[in-house]
Specification:
The chain has helices spanning 34-38, 45-67, 86-103, 112-118, 165-175, 182-190, 214-224, 250-275, 291-300, 310-313, 317-329, 349-356, and strands at 3-8, 13-20, 24-32, 76-82, 107-111, 133-138, 143-150, 153-159, 280-284, 305-306. The protein is of the alpha/beta class. α4 crosses α11, α5 runs antiparallel to α8 (250-275) and α6 crosses α8. The model has no long low-confidence stretch (mean pLDDT 92). It binds 5'-O-[(R)-(carboxyoxy)(hydroxy)phosphoryl]adenosine and zinc ion (ZN). The site of zinc ion (ZN) has 5 residues, from α4.
């Protein structure tokens, strides 16, 4: 039995969890900063790292207590090393290093995307998993299609060349004068709208596995902005709700936007699953909470589709502990020189070990 303490602080959730053998979750404590960042319409990095510092110690204690264990029961500390916000990552990594040094515990740095993949490992299932599996990771920071051919064996088939899917939801919500985070509120608003009212672009459709969402965001902007009068807002500063035309049907725009996003995500993932003979499609990351995405993937996939429960869709440390377990049993270790990697791409564990040598 291997018990891993996981720590996650790459963005705006401070989280700690205790997981046994990569699948049994004894605890998973998540302190969200959403309320703190809502007023800015996005994550404010300096505030995020300060909030992580304030929360981390209590969150780790709560995870240990909740699991009914002490640090004596822990075999290794797994922590998100990247990708993510530098100031936020530093808090978790430094805390994990301190624990590892103080208690003589092995330290395992985990890729955040790998964590999202392993959120699927924490769900109960009746049949064992057979590889290969295709996983769509969609969050505020990422949109990738990953081929998984074994534990810790990843090939990134495609990713976004500009905005992430969740980022597109957040930006379009801002254009429409809706709250942050944009995903849940657009999903709710879209239920009242007509998804064929606008035909928004499906970028890179039929052209491999990369995504592009910035043209879609611009198309929404054009559909809702008032006729040009006076100075435009400076480039890069989105519109405020007062700059939206009054006659815009917000639910129709939300529904049409969501249809465009879901269409490309599903099309490309299903195509990848067929091309690589996947036995299952997995969806992970914050956007995997979206019911329209889940329903469309289920409709169009030739193989079973699996999604994590809501609490494992958002950033959490249980998925980091699960991924950390597989790194640990592969013999992957980090030491006190481990630094954060804010732009760390997802590579197979074997390659990560070779790079570390
Ligand atoms: O995985 P996550 O918690 O954090 C990152 O690693 O980014 O994902 C947060 C993102 C946000 O952009 C949010 O708008 C989006 O996930 N999101 C959704 C939904 N719930 C959260 N997007 C679409 N539909 C949802 N129901
Ligand atoms: Zn994430």
């Amino acid at each position: 039995m291997t018990t891993i303490l996981g720590i996650e602080s790459s963005c705006d959730e401070t989280s700690a969890a205790v997981v046994v053998d990569g699948h049994t979750m004894l605890s998973n404590v998540v302190a969200s900063q959403i309320d703190l960042h809502a007023q800015y319409g996005g994550v404010f990095p300096e505030l995020a790292s300060r909030a992580h510092i304030e929360a981390i110690s209590a969150v780790v204690k709560q995870a240990l207590n909740g699991a009914g264990v002490t640090l004596d029961d822990i075999d290794a500390v797994a922590v998100t090393r990247g990708p993510g916000l530098a100031g936020s990552l530093l808090v978790g990594v430094n805390y994990a290093k301190g624990l590892a040094l103080g208690r003589g515990l092995p330290l395992v740095g985990v890729n955040h995307l790998e964590g999202h993949v392993y959120s699927l490992w924490l769900i109960e299932r009746e049949t064992p998993i057979t590889f290969p599996v295709v996983c769509l990771i969609v969050s505020g920071g990422h949109s990738e299609i990953v081929l998984i051919t074994g534990h810790g064996e990843y090939t990134v088939l495609g990713s976004t060349i500009d905005d992430a899917a969740g980022e597109a939801y957040d930006k379009v919500a801002r254009l429409l004068g809706l709250a942050y985070p944009g995903g849940p509120v657009i999903e709710r608003t879209a239920r009242e709208g007509n998804a064929t009212a606008y035909h928004f672009p499906r970028a890179l459709s039929g052209e491999g596995y990369n995504f592009s969402f910035s043209g879609l965001k611009t198309a929404v902007l054009r559909a809702v902005q008032p006729p040009h009068e006076g100075p435009r807002p400076p480039k890069g500063e989105g519109m405020t709700s007062t700059q939206r035309r009054d006659d815009v049907n917000v639910p129709d725009v939300a529904a049409s936007f969501q249809a465009a996003v879901v269409d490309v995500l599903v099309d490309k993932t299903v195509h990848a699953a067929r091309e690589h003979g996947a036995t299952e499609i997995w969806i992970a990351g914050g956007v995997s909470a979206n019911q329209a995405l889940r329903a469309a993937m289920n409709d169009r996939s030739p193989v079973p589709v699996r999604v994590p429960p809501m609490k494992l869709c958002v950033d959490n440390a249980a998925m980091i502990a699960a991924a950390g377990y597989f790194r640990y049993i592969h013999g992957y270790r980090d030491d006190q020189t481990m630094d954060i990697l804010p732009m760390w791409p997802l590579v197979s564990i074997k390659d990560a070990m070779r790079q570390a040598e």
